[in-house]
Design a protein that fits this description.
The protein is of the alpha/beta class. The protein has helices at 3-11, 45-52, 55-58, 67-83, 97-109, 123-132, 139-147, 210-215; strands spanning 18-23, 41-43, 88-91, 113-119, 159-164, 167-173, 199-204. It has a single domain (3-215), classed as P-loop containing nucleotide triphosphate hydrolases (Rossmann fold, 3-Layer(aba) Sandwich). The protein is 34% helix and 17% strand.
């Protein structure tokens, strides 16, 4: 069984609708995973960006002037889908705590399950994939995104899967209560709010261990 098969087994145990957040640098394979979740509404700032900038014609993939409009449109699609009780995938880099907080708050308001899929790809592999792209992403943005990446906190998800080339780790976490009482000002990269949580390691690919994850050269290190 693949990590996707295992993930779906765990997702099937959850009650209610699902909100999947993709996390990872450009070229890590996030968008490719979409096909494994048919019927999900896709909200993707990158798709919106490419459409507005007419990427296929111009080759332009980024314009800071339109970024607020892009994110407003993406969040509007999320809000409309949540109100209609639809399963959702948010396809973006989601590298920062604050960016994920925007999504987390919306999902918790409607009592959704939150699943974070982290495509934890090595810098070397990202570079190889980027070269093969029709329109490569500049190295600087990729480096910046990786540099600002913060590993998800326990209270951010119901299920979290860290996918690496050597294997994967999948965690199931007890949903927290009174999420709306959390204040953004209290959220930092080093501290979590004072909440009760229970984490259970459900599956661990036999080909990978915590030590091998942390020592894998070029991998983005996380607080496992």
């Amino acid at each position: 069984m693949t990590w996707i098969d295992i993930l779906k087994l765990e997702m099937n145990k959850l009650l209610g609708k699902n909100f999947i957040i993709f996390m990872g640098a450009p070229g890590s394979g996030k968008t490719t995973i979409r096909k494994h979740f048919p019927g999900y509404i896709i909200a993707s700032p990158d798709d919106i960006r490419m459409r507005i900038l007419k990427f296929e014609e111009t080759g332009v993939s980024y314009d800071p002037k339109i970024e607020p409009d892009i994110w407003d449109e993406a969040y509007l699609k999320v809000d409309e889908s949540l109100a209609k009780n639809k399963n959702i995938i948010f396809d973006s880099t989601a590298t920062t705590l604050i960016r994920r907080y925007e999504l987390n708050g919306r999902a918790r308001k409607y009592h959704y399950n939150i699943i974070i899929i982290f495509m934890n790809t090595t810098l070397l592999e990202l570079a190889k994939r980027n070269v093969s792209r029709k329109k490569p992403v500049p190295d600087q943005p990729i480096g910046r995104l990786i540099g600002q990446l913060t590993y998800p906190k326990y209270w951010e998800y119901d299920i979290f899967v860290d996918v690496q080339e050597a294997g994967y780790k999948l965690y199931v976490c007890k949903p927290i209560k009174n999420y709306k009482t959390l204040e953004l000002a209290n959220l930092t990269d080093t501290d979590s709010p004072a909440i009760n949580f229970k984490e259970t390691l459900k599956y661990d690919n036999k080909h990978i261990t915590k030590s091998s994850i942390n020592k894998s050269k070029g991998n983005i290190k996380g607080a496992n």
